[in-house]
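User: Please predict structures.

Assistant: First:
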Amino acid sequence: MLNGIQKFFRGNGGFADMGDRYPVLDAHFQSSIAGLYIIGDVAGTPDIKASLNTGYDVAHHIADSATGTAPHTEEFSVAIIGGGPAGLNAAIELQKRGVKYVLLERREILHAIRAFESNLPLFYPSTGDPHIRGDLWFGDTTAKELIAKWTPQIASLHLNIHEREEVKSLKKKGVFIISTPQRDYTAGCVILATGKLAFLKKLGAEEEITPRVAHENAAAKKYTKKHVLVNGVTAASVARAIDLSESNTVTILDSSAIAKNLDVGEVAHLMNNVRTKPIALYEHTRIDRLEKDTAILHRTNPARPSDPPEIFTIQNDIVESYSGIDRAFVDHLEADTTMIRALGVKMENTWDWKRYAWLGIALVASGVFYYEKKSLYSEFGLGTMLGIIAGAIGGFYCIRGVLNGIEGMRWGKLPRRSIVEFFLGGALAALGVYAVFSHPADIWQRSLGAWYPAIYSILVIVFGIKAIFRWRDSIQTKKYISLMFFQVFFFWVLPEFILRNWLSYTLVYAWPLVLAPHTITSFLDPQFDPGLFYFWWGTGITVILLPIFVALTGKKYCAWVCGCGGLAETVGDSFRHYSPKGKKNIEREVVIYWVTGIALALTIIVGAMTLLKIDFTFGGAKFSDYLQKGYSWGVDWTLISFIPVALYPFFGGKIWCRYWCPTALYMNVLSKIFTKKNVGYFRIDSDKGRCIACNMCSRYCEVGIDVMRYALKGQTLDNVTSSCIGCGVCISVCPTDTLWYGEKKSGQLLQIAIPAAAKQRA
């Protein structure tokens, strides 16, 4: 049982699987290991511009920090590992500041960019800082043009670069010890600026056989008397094919013409080797599928594209792919974190004993709060409420001081901050507990139940404004303003100060957030004025207004209107990237069907019993009361209230919307039907030519959709293929304007927001 629980939470496909995880860094990109700075792809930097700027910033921070200190006894002040844009810009700035450094690169500098197709477009990102810091130029260009610009500039600087020197280990013993096959280096600081490994899926084929298929980074083995297929024509793949042909039979193919990626001299060199060595060359050809010891190839005739393709078979033992630059074939990019994990660098969302402890504390604290709100809301005043808040905040810091103190003592040091948090947090918690037990009077004669909407609205406003400044994007600004408006007006001002009727909280809610099993008796009671009005109003929203809204906007109600979703989008915004990722977690969404079925059945049963005025007692209470209370505590309290809020910092804010909300499922079904009938307008379109596979879209998707898979292939993302709620964050974080809200499939435009670059393409 324990193994089953552990497997459910941890590892690939576990509920805590948030996809790529990056190291926890401070504002200056320093990791939990003092002196170890992490930048570039391994730190989650999404693009070349951001990499250049982080390299510049960390170099100047290190140079400024070293000012006035005693001379270092180690060989170098700084060792840079990785010769990509981030590492190179750091080296340039350190050299300008007179800091002694060395840059180690296991291949050649800018290897990843050199491996791209020569005419692959590189786009100037629309996210992040508008300008580039440092001397290296970057703008809309191609891989070949960028290398042509940078190579002579870098050469003229005479940087201390050691190419083809792979770092085998990194240790810290007072100073950092960096070991390579050639020698050991010592340095006071290390800047880790390594790139990502490209994992290719299926190569466009039906099946990938591992380890038969190797991507470029793993393609370095020696073979003898093998049938090797080299997929993709680049300068590197040609050199590899020629080398392999000395003792193997080689087939090299490309989905386009070879002249697309090679210059005239390189083409002549390849053709000469094709004539003299066991190399077969196929242009305009791709892999259709791989079988046990053969490869089925698919070749088109560019001169007659309407002709059916030629399908043929070749013998094959090994596939080495150099087509990672064909972005549609990229399964995912994953940073190599072996060194930093071995060094003990703290990674985000690491499930150690402290995180499990915080999860337990969050569940208890949230459960107690919502229990008091649900069962004792009329007995508590705002004074008591403030005491509860003070106790919770003080308790949080007191407990954090204890846990961080225990963690620090493991390394032989009791952090001063832990002592301060323990005593100050404990004092605040004690004051809060005193306030709760002294039962302070109501403030302005309003109980906790009356103050709860105000507190809820203030949270949405404060964290909504914080999110607006975080994203600084027109789509997110509109979304958060929409959420704040609906929360303040419809879920606070209107019911509390204008209509003064608790039923009016339901004005913009559909079933079962309004006509739920535990409320339908009140709605159907003719003596409960104006309950019948709200019953028909809620029914009209459910069967008329909501379907229209869904036809136009998909499930945007979840992210732009709903009060439950509003708290998740605002308070939970900082944790959205913790959402469970992967195929297994998408499959777990099936639980929403069970919750919806229970909600529907209980609504019908309780409603019918109320209308027909039939009931019977069971254990001294009415049967309908059991059903209502069971749903009220089992779903309304457990699944809507305390569990999702407690899980915000651990699994993102959309756990309720994604796994348990019947209204979300109802909208998903409607949106799927409308889209299939070609009357649904919601979709997110993509331009695969602009996708750089940075994975930011998938990382920040709060309902766990692998958006990058759609973008790489230029596919449409809608509610036929996913449970997308239209929050738009994937569009906002995309550095190259690959994604945008689309249009109706029939071609009638209803473009809510579309990047300027996409408009120009249209």
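Second:
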Amino acid sequence: MKFFSSKWRIAAVAALILLLFLLRPGASRLKSRIVSSISAAVGRPVDIGSVHLRLLPRPGFDLKNLVVYDDPAFGAEPMLRANEVTADLRLTSLVRGRLEIARLDLADPSLNLVHGANGRWNLEALLERTAHTPLAPTGKAKSEPRPGFPYIEATSARINFKNGPEKKPYALTNADFSLWQDSENAWGVRLKAQPFRTDLNLNDTGTLLVNGTWQRAATLGDTPLQFSMEWSRAQLGQLTKFFMGNDQGWRGGVQVDVSLTGTPAKLRVTSNTSVQDFRRYDIASGQPLRLASHCEGQYSSANHAFHELLCTAPVGSGAITLKGDMGLPGSGSYELVLMADDVPASAAMALAQRAKKNLPEDLVAGGTVSGNFTLERKKAAQVRVKGRGEIADFRLASAANKAEIGPETIPFVLTNRSSGGVTSRRTRRTRRNAAPEMRFPEGAHVEFGPFPIAIGRVAGPTTRGWANRAGYGLSVTGEAETAKALRVARMLGLPALQATTEGTAQVDLQVMGSWAGRNGAASGFSGPQVTGTAKLRNVRIAVRGAGGAVEISSADLQLAPDAVRIEKLSAKAADTSWAGSIVMPRGCGTPDACQAHFSLSANQIALGELRDWVSPRPKARPWYRVLESNAQAGTSFLASVRASGRVTTQQLLAQGLAATHVSANVSLDSGKLQISELNADFLGGKHRGEWRTDFRAKPTVCIGSGSVTGISLARLADAMKDQWIAGTANTSYEVKGTCPAEFWTLAEGTLQFDVRDGTLPHISLAEDMGALKVTRFSGKARLQAGRLDIKDAKLDSVGGKFLVSGTASWKRDLDMKLARIPSGGAASAYTITGTLAEPRVIRLAGPETQARLKPEPAK
């Protein structure tokens, strides 16, 4: 009988399909039945735009514009919208005269998941309805009166999340999901999607995979379920941008695996999280770092909290453990205990190398970290934290920087108190320009120290500090050797002078830094800032590219947030003693990005020694290195610095001449030196001029212009050790040439001169006239090839008026011609040859007789 019954059913189904194919009843007349069937299944109003009958490859319907409306309590927007839906009929249901859907395929649907004001999701009612509806499993093996739960599949779906009527920016795109009834009392679901935010441009957010089953129960909270979720191939920077709205600047591949078992009222949660190659966005070097943790706990939907939470992160031979209870993120309720058990300090340093820039790659840390901390907060109550620990036998070394600190034992405590040092009135008066005393931040933070740092032969400064999730701070107070202190600073990634130094300093410094960028932006990462004071004593600094070191006898150094101020400076450079102050802006990145300002004075400056110090000659090399390049290694510090200010000196020595009461505005910009308003008392007169030098040019070029008024020519003769001239003069000059010691013998330029009431004791135009007395001598000379070329200068003397032309060299050789104005007479022209000390005067007009030289006075 069963055999014939089975045959009869098959024949009936075949006949019904043939009848449908021949008659093709209007599908639109079945639309209301389809709408009613789907609406009854989901418990929501349903609307369909149109229905088209499909017979092949299997009987069914093509639905257009399917809309499943939501409960009005969750908003007016539909729960589900799909432009195209394929509904396959269950053939066996046709024999019983029913329309039963075996499979629903939704193309590009949009699903809204809404969290209502009552704390429930719009999907909960649908799940509860499904659990109470006596449906047969999706893959039921035989025909029975109960309708079977259809296999529902969606491709390229979009799942939106809403909080009441407000649509959140979070969404799942390219989502493929399937829903079916797995057995009599169990359902299954699969989901593959990409997390997305509608208000941001995101990529590399990874793929989310969900597989789960749940069983029939009286209430949703008692529904047994088992889910596994995997979030893979997510990039950490894009993940922080997804949750926080901006890229926090961290990089790495994120993998999250979560399993849920139990019921929503009592759910067992297990997770494994890892980040491969964790680093800051601008750090590409170093060994890849993997961060990983395993967490277990129990979640209750009744109070939306995790209980019996236990997270472990193995670190080397030790481990970090977190246990306790906590609410969902944002609830502000937790009671946690954090324990560090024999965590290697080297692991913490590896994390710091991937989180903070400029730490050396060869940085080696030793010691172990142990501690126990408690964090507690009840909703809006104040956070209560406590705990203590230590870093035992802490050591830190960098071979590249030749620096090492430790071993030291560093104690630390966890607290939420805010405190700062108390400064007396007397201390405040003496430190009114210094950085303020370090204060600890509000909220939970770790305080560590105080502990000594042995730097060099001195006892070393004492250090204490704090750290929280936002940043850190250090206070360093005491005496330190400058050379080793700078090497330690570079080892710790702090900005430090790149120069060889010797000496000591009494320091009172504060170091502040943050773990993340400004305003949460990756581009806002900045290095730590050092502020405070340092008193330098007997410090010697080797300046790259200079002819010698700078020796600082004493100076007060102030590190403000915006500038470095050096006051009460007493130093020696280029064999000159200097005093004054220097202000250098901070935060420029490189020496040529900002301009320093100075005010310096010296008792005496020797221009030649200063020139040799600024631009020294290359050192002689041994014979076996003559084939090597003559280029000096590195770039001169003076070629990259930018500075301007005022320089004064009591005496300036140049080429055997001395100027007194000298002052000038000096500007140095990336190897270009400009001296303006150069005022001085010179040879009894006043000098005012301007000079420019380009140290980057090879050879170095000097350009000068200026004027000197009221010169005593007798003083000039004294400086030349030959009383060959007397009187006063005014002159102006423009000169250009290379800047070795022989500048004046190679320079070119022009000279305007005006001599009044002068005397040339070595020259006499006639035997009875005596020394040549000059009423006025004015004209223009051209300087070139180490000589002065004079043309048509005017000479007014007791013996007449003359036009003067000829040359005078720096070697004091003369070749001059004096032409009388007007011409004629016994002596209309003269030539003067020889030297300044022994000139020869020859009369050219009339009988050619040689004017005798005025005899030297008897000694």
